[in-house]
Amino acid sequence: MSNTEYFSETHNQAREMARRFVARHILPHIDDWEEQGEFPRELYHQAGEAGLLGIGYPEKFGGSGEGDLFLKIAVSEELLRSTSGGLVAGLGSLDIALPPIVQWARPEVRDRVVPDVLAGRKIAALAVTEPDGGSDVARLKTRAVRDGDHYRVSGSKTFITSGIRADYYTVAVRTGDEGHGGISLLLIEKGTPGFSVGRKLNKMGWWASDTAELFFDDCRVPAENLIGQENAGFIAIMANFLRERLMLSVMAYMTAELALEASLEYTRSRKAFGRTVAGFQVTRHKLVDMATDVDLAREYTYRCAALMQARKNPIRQVAMAKNFATEACERVTREAVQLHGGMGYMRESVVERLYRDARILAIGGGTTEIMKELIAKQMGL
Amino acid sequence: MKVLVAVKRVIDYNVKVRVKPDNTGVDLANVKMAMNPFCEIAVEEAVRLKEKGVATEIVVVSIGPKAAQEQIRTALALGADRGIHIETDEEVQSLQAAKLLKAVVDKEEPKLVILGKQSIDTDNNQTGQMLAALAGMPQGTFASEVVVDGDKVNVTREVDGGLVTVQLNLPAVVTTDLRLNEPRYASLPNIMKAKKKPLDTQSPADLGVDLTPRLTTLKVEAPQTRKAGIKVGSVEELVDKLKNEAKVI
Predict the structure, then answer these.
(1) Which residue of A52, A186, A270, B46 has the smallest Cβ count within 10 Å?
(2) Which helix H or strand E contains B99, and what residues bound it?
(3) Per-residue pLDDT reduced to its tens digit, A155-212
(4) A299 at B interface, C-beta within 8 A
(5) CA dist., res. A167 & res. A242, Å (int)
(6) What ipTM score was computed for the predicted complex, to two decimals?
């Protein structure tokens, strides 16, 4: 095969459209939204109207490009050019919350929930992590006990992206015995008696996203809100993770890419000792290392996406991509701040934000260490 | 009412162009291409006319290499109904473009033809006017407002010192200025739908037009880099320099 391109003309058109969306609706305001710790809810609506939220979902729910992973990547890359990982994570929280609902929820629940979320009228969030544990999904404690045609849910969740504003939560609960065989997914709606949302958590990065704790105190959830079979939730959660990790790799190399671009521009114009900063060999080599990191992370992530597109299950490769891309991102954003000097430490420079936003990528969606355990297992170690 | 819109594939306006080392033209290798911004405004105006119920069909035409189909698809995603691609890898100068468009106009018989006032690659600002002349149609150039009124169209034009409104009998040619509208971006579902809209490819020979250039480009050079300015100490010095060095007063 001589084709080395992953992106088609349609992908490029979608990219161009997303770029315009970002230029028109996001870039003029993003610095304010980052400082305010929130972007307007209206943006979900605007993104929904433009079709940006529905990528990869079936047309009957208002989606488009179902099964086209590179369309998703093309558009995500452009959205990340907003320079705010937090905004992209907040706007995109549906992508970790909705897939189990689309695939496994009861048709009447699915048909009521999915179109509103894809249109940006409602917000969806995924809730797996608990105050007592995150990575160890199999040991989660939030309990749901069947009581007639309801479940009674007790427990709490934390670090939930879009947790403050969401209308629908895809919540991992324990319905059975200990271990991964006793976990189910439940759709819990805002306003359900016994369900409350805690304070907005202040974070190191991702400022523009709202992150929350959730509390369930004998919360009564209709049994029809069960997503899939009872006690079969673990597999659904794991299947969901593959995509989330791929998208985190995309976030990582794009965050690095933006830091590299900003550094190239800054070092070419900034003068020191009678020449541009880029004129020093030490700077050039640094920029080359950064560019190498970005390219390798990007190309390997594309390869993983191609495998997923071909309906393989590249657990090992995606875990490797996530680890490599997130570490590359930390290296690149660190050097970007360094190359900017004092200016890199100022909030008015974009690399300051990118450096802070880089850190979460090696934690969310499974930490680097969990990825390594996953890879080791796949290698038969 | 049928509306014909012409769009051109040009270097993206964000790209800093470079002159080829042999001074024969601008380097197009690996350069991002896009629809000419004035053509986007033309497409947007046609789509708005359709949304108002004035236009019933929008046909978009582009002249250029195979890749120009991308720009036609973009226009289709924005709301045009079908596309005509006149495929050629030759250089197409304003007069030849106007002749090709005239042939399309003869065939399609649109009530209104909307073009950008110029394309940002060569900035000639000729094709619309030449087309109007060749087709014997009235022209309203540099439009900042277009209002169709029965079998007439009122075109408000931006001219030095203000605005002029002209009334033209349809069919007519209108060329767009920057302030006519703010073009939308296509929604993703519309980008997908555009793939299924009809796109007809023709050659200049099919339309009986000879593309032989009437103008010869001798040399293309980058503009001189601007020299650094100076600071003057007093008004007297400024006046002296304006008078004796710059010789503008």
Answers:
(1) A270
(2) helix B94-108
(3) 999 999 999 999 999 999 999 999 899 999 999 999 999 999 999 999 999 999 999 9
(4) no
(5) 24
(6) 0.81
Domain B2-244 has CATH 3.40.50.620: yes
- Partners of B77 on chain A (C-beta within 8 Å) are 13, 17
Q: A9 vs B70: CB contact, 8 Å cut-off?
A: yes
Residue B117 has pLDDT above 50, yes or no: yes
Superfamily of structural domain A9-118: Acyl-CoA dehydrogenase/oxidase, N-terminal domain (1.10.540.10)
pLDDT number for residue A157 = 96
User: What Rg do the C-alpha atoms of chain B give, in angstroms?
Assistant: 21
Active-site position among A78, A244, A335, A352: A244
| B18 CA: distance to closest CA in chain A (Å) | 18
The C-alpha torsion from B41 through B45 and B47 to B49, rounded to 10°, is 180
Q: How far is A180 from chain B (nearest CA, A)?
A: 39
Contact assessment for residue B3 and residue B111, using Cβ atoms and an 8 Å cutoff: yes
CB contact under 8 A, B188 and A14: yes
CB contact under 8 A, A51 and B187: yes
Put simply, the answer to whether B187 touches A24 (Cβ < 8 Å) is no
Q: Identify whether A244 is a catalytic site residue.
A: yes
Name the pTM for this structure. 0.87
pLDDT digits (tens, 9 = 90+) for A214-253: 999 999 999 999 999 999 999 888 888 999 999 999 999 9
Residue B163: per-residue pLDDT: 93
A347 at B interface, C-beta within 8 A? no
User: Structurally, what CATH architecture does the domain formed by A235-378 represent?
Assistant: Up-down Bundle (1.20)
